[in-house]
Amino acid sequence: MNTQNIVIALVALLLIGGGAYWMLNDRGEMVSNTDMMPVEPDGGIGDGAAPLDELLGDSDTADGPMVYASQTVIGASADGVDITAYHFGNGAEEVLLIGGTHGSYSANTHELAEEFITYLGADESLVPDNLRVTVIPTVNPDGLASGGTTGRFNSNNVDLNRNFDCDWARTSMWRDQEVSGGTAAFSEPEAQAVRDYMSEINAVGAIVWFAAEGKVYPAACGGNPSNASVALANTFGTAAAYAVEPEFDAYTINGDMVNWMAKQGVPAISVLLTDRTNIEWDKNEAGFKAVLATFAN
To answer: Are residues 136 and 80 in the same domain?
Structure first.
């Protein structure tokens, strides 16, 4: 061993006890082990697609509720595009915000949900300590990418808001037009992703955006809406200055996502933006903050 290598070895032995050490790289330069560690693109841990409790081990600690990474891939579309959920806060009770079910046909619902991601990311202290807010901005990424009226449907030509297990039917209606509800309830991977994610969390409320009417409807499956869904609709609608209706009766909807949530015992509302262009941020921010205040403790 030459003198240079002896010196390098001694330096390495002195520093390795502190968790860092130095070595020669392939260009003969002295570098530390930390300089050679790969850096995640987002500066975080892992690929952002798994809860931190999975990455770090025990999820049920004495210190408090589970801590999650900032985002989770909850499934994929019919074309294999990731469906991603973004999380804010570390509370044990979860409020869901969902957009983009009808793809490019109601692209402003996706844009509004994206705005909530930016809003909460800039100030996560908006989320009360007992809550976690999860935003799923795009349930239907294939439809969002396709453009036009046909973007209302997924790549299997199924209306995803007719594919959930509440009064499901193979054929349902959209206005005066027949639309496909899929081959069975939850036949579509996008609906499966929402179902499977909700089965893993303690959801206390959900706000799902559609377009376009400028009204709020409480969830109901096979009967009258629950008192909790009615209260949620009134809280959001009053703060957002949207009209609140007791039920949607313009035409029959089978397999509705929000009504399926009611079947699961989760208070939920459909918020129909006034048109298919504007996100109406001020109104929806006010409604969201009022809803959070009711769930805070």
So the answer is: yes
Residue 44 in domain = no
Do 132 and 174 fall within a single domain? yes
CB 245, CB 287: distance < 8 Å: no
pTM: 0.78
158: exposed, middle or buried (C-beta count within 10 Å: 0-12, 13-18, 19+)? buried
Dihedral angle of Cα 154, 215, 223, 231, to the nearest 10 degrees: 120
Tokens 């179902």 -> residue? 195
Are 125 and 13 in a shared domain?
no
Assigned domain for 237 exists: yes
The CATH number of whichever domain residue 158 belongs to comes to 3.40.630.10
Q: State the Cα–Cα distance between residues 210 and 219, nearest whole angstrom.
A: 13
For 79, other C-beta atoms within 10 Å of its C-beta total 14
Domains contained in the chain, number: 2
What is the overall mean pLDDT for the chain? 83
Q: Which domain holds residue 32?
A: 1-37
12-48 pLDDT per residue, tens: 443 434 444 344 443 344 434 433 333 333 333 233 3
Domain check: are 157 and 223 in the same one? Answer: yes
Q: Which residues of 109-131 are buried (b: 16+ CB within 10 A; e: fewer)?
A: bbbbbbbbbeebeeeeeebbeeb
CA–CA distance, 72 with 219 (Å, rounded to integer): 26
Residue 271 has a pLDDT of 98
Helix residue ranges, H only, the chain: 3-16, 52-56, 107-122, 141-146, 189-199, 227-240, 257-263, 281-295
Q: Report the alpha-carbon distance of residue 277 to residue 266 in Å, rounded.
A: 29
Nearest to residue 204, comparing CAs of 285, 97, 114?
97
